[in-house]
Amino acid sequence: MGDATITKIDAANFHEIPTEGIKWWFWADSHNEPPLRGIHLVDNLPDAVPPFATHIWGWGDDQYIRIRVDRSLESGFVAIRLTFSDDTAASANCVVQKNKSSSFLGIFENVLSSATVWVARRKDNPATSVEFISLG
Question: What share of the chain is helix, strand, coil (3-state, %, to 5)?
Fold first, then answer.
């Protein structure tokens, strides 16, 4: 368990999502045509919201981004950032539990060694949680 900070990313469109410091992006898309269909692990955020993705996760440099696709919103998504830093304790608004696993990575066994799921619970409302993912 540790303290961290969750902040909303204010971006009016997908191109405005800040990507500096994010090394990898991951999502699954159920579109019926390649190259959109499938599981994607790439080093750049795509140019547009993937058509049938529900979530996109990015990670790198002690920060994690979670994008929830919501076509009912004008922007088409909601994005938040999880950050850890030495001075986080004073400004932390959440408690984070780290869960590491290698058991589900069979299809990626030649590429990835583990998956980490960061479960963040807001200090002012611990009944709710949000998950951030990093693959290694």
Answer: 5, 50, 45
Q: What six digits make up the tokens of 20?
A: 């500096």
Q: With CA atoms as reference, report the closest residue to 65 among 85, 82, 41.
A: 82
Report yes or no: 135 and 24 within 8 Å, Cβ to Cβ: yes
- The alpha carbon dihedral of 121, 21, 30, 136 has a sign of negative
Are the beta carbons of 94 and 2 closer than 8 angstroms?
no
Distance CA 17, CA 106 (A): 31
The model's pLDDT over 70-82, given as tens digits with 9 standing for 90+, comes to 989 989 999 999 9
Give this prediction's pTM: 0.83
Calpha distance 129→1 (Å, rounded):
14
The Cα 54–Cα 20 span in angstroms is: 22
